Amino acid sequence: MTSLREMGYIAAVAAEGHVGRAAARCGVSQPTLSGALKKVEDDLGVTLFERSGRALALTAEGRSLVAQARRVLDEAGRFDEMARGFSRPLSGKLAVGVIPTLSPYLLPLCLKPLERAFPDLQLAVREATTDELLAGVGAHEHDALLLATPPADDARLDGEVLFDEPFYFLCHADGPLADRDSVAMAEVAEQPLMLLTDGHCLGDQARELCATVVGQGPWEADFSATSIETLRQMVAFGMGATLLPALAVHATGPLPESVRAIPIVDPRAGRRVRMVWRRRHPWADHLPAIARVLRETAREVPFVA
């Protein structure tokens, strides 16, 4: 019979599409995971993955079996969670998944208030993209998520809105719009913009916003980066302009003198940040208290509502 550990390996490979990344996610060596995967396929007599170089893709049979494995893992994981929830809620470890465009700016503000409010709580934070985090919460890798993209309608999930965060137009001090007190989104879309790569929700949201404003199909940036800090430095050196959320502008200290952060006059230019958790989590009735601390702390930052 396939063990829960083996099912976890299969689910990780399906989520990552790569044995090496899946092994790192599971905390085992790549040979260990590869051997376990081969054993499961041999025992079942079913090919779960198609190999193409280092990448793996699920077969039709694999998709069905992985979906079942995730259901089994979901139910099995509830055993320990139920015991923990019955004993002392909001004590011990809370595994929180956070998107990388939010964690460096929100978490430093919130760690002390959370510690004061919940002294027995220990946060374990993992950064990943929205899709990776949603897969992880379903596999019991996370207790809660902090996201800026509304998850697809999923009866398993519950959550609360934390705050609305406007976008700013970040440009060099010598840029054509640098002396403005505010700019329209239509003006922003005409500038040589640098955005985060595909897969980062902030970059995806900015592209969709620009496409909507200019009334065209897919909108592409002039330059793509993998982090907000790269974009910030590129702007400082006069390589272009970008869109950044309010926390990334106001929660990190003064901007370089060569950079201007200009409010965008458009209600669509922003994002809504949420805390999400499994509806059947044993702390489900208590997690809104954590959301409340996050909400109150974030709203002390200028222009975050």
From TrEMBL:
Q: Establish whether keyword Nucleotide-binding is in the entry.
A: no
Segments passing through the bilayer: none
Q: Which GO terms describe its cellular component?
A: protein-DNA complex
| GO molecular function terms attached to this record | DNA binding; DNA-binding transcription factor activity
The residue ranges of the HTH lysR-type domain are 1-59
Q: Pfam families given for it?
A: HTH_1 (PF00126), LysR_substrate (PF03466)
Q: Which UniProt keywords apply?
A: Activator, DNA-binding, Transcription, Transcription regulation
Record has Transcription regulation as a keyword = yes
Q: Give the highest taxon in the source lineage.
A: Bacteria
Indicate the family of this protein. Belongs to the LysR transcriptional regulatory family.
What's the name of the protein?
LysR family transcriptional regulator, hydrogen peroxide-inducible genes activator
Can you name the source organism? Limimonas halophila
